[in-house]
Amino acid sequence: MTVAWGNLSARRAVPGDFDDVLEILRLARADSPLGPHLCSPDGDRVAEQLAAWFELADTHLVVAESDDRIMGITFCQIVDTSVFADLRFLQIEAVFVHPEFRRRGVGRMLMTEVAHLAVEVEAERIVTIVLTGARSEQRFLAGLGFGPAGSRRIVDTTALLRRLEVPVSHRERRVRGFDDLIARRRRSRELTAAQH
């Protein structure tokens, strides 16, 4: 499935995307405080690893692009039920958005495609690990409904889809939350008054 907003779209990668994906991986390595632990500096080695990973069963590479330029990537893996998991879930291995295109909806676009993938493969939850520990990464995931579960972050697939339906600014969310609080208090007072 391909999702699109304006000239921005996200889709499953094809082998022809590898050169652009490798460039994004090089940027991710340079941007990460983990440095060498993120991926090898050897481009040929990373290309081999990417091709091997792409061929594995139950792995998916999602790319976000605009004007035929890849701006972000997400590596996902389907984890089936096992001794350690009674539900099938989608594990996000890595998410990275090109630094020039951050805060423009690229991450949300990637996560929308990931959520649709989770529905397609009947994964009830989406799980990830905050790879770098960066506050921006944690805020992004929290804003999409990911909550802590040990060292991971987890969200129900349906909850993520609801959050991604309509982009809402932070201010609008706060106002709506305040209005909801006032409405709940009024209902509570009405019920209390009716009982007396």
Question: What would you say this structure looks like, in words?
Answer:
It contains six helices and eight strands. Residues 166-175 have low confidence and may be disordered. α1 (18-31) packs across α2 (43-55) and α3 packs across α5. It folds into two domains: 3-165, 3-Layer(aba) Sandwich (Aminopeptidase), CATH 3.40.630.30; 169-196. By secondary structure, it is of the alpha+beta class. The chain is elongated and about 75 Å long. The protein has helices spanning 18-31, 43-55, 106-120, 135-143, 157-165, 170-195, and strands at residues 3-5, 8-12, 59-66, 69-79, 89-97, 125-129, 147-149, 152-156. An eight-stranded mixed beta sheet has the order 1-2-3-4-5-6-8-7, sandwiched between helices.
Feature tags:
196 residues, alpha+beta, Aminopeptidase
Tell me which CATH architecture of the largest domain applies here.
Answer: 3-Layer(aba) Sandwich
Total strands: the figure is 8
Biggest sheet: strand arrangement: 1-2-3-4-5-6-8-7
pLDDT averaged over residues: 81
Question: Which percent range describes the beta-strand content?
Answer: 25-35%
Overall shape: it is elongated
Low-confidence stretches: 166-175
Helix and strand composition category: alpha+beta
What assembly state would you assign to the polypeptide chains in this entry?
A: single chain
**Percent of residues in helical segments?**
40-55%
CATH class type of the largest domain? Alpha Beta
> Kindly, what is the distance between the CA atoms of the first and last residues, rounded to a whole number of angstroms?
56 Å
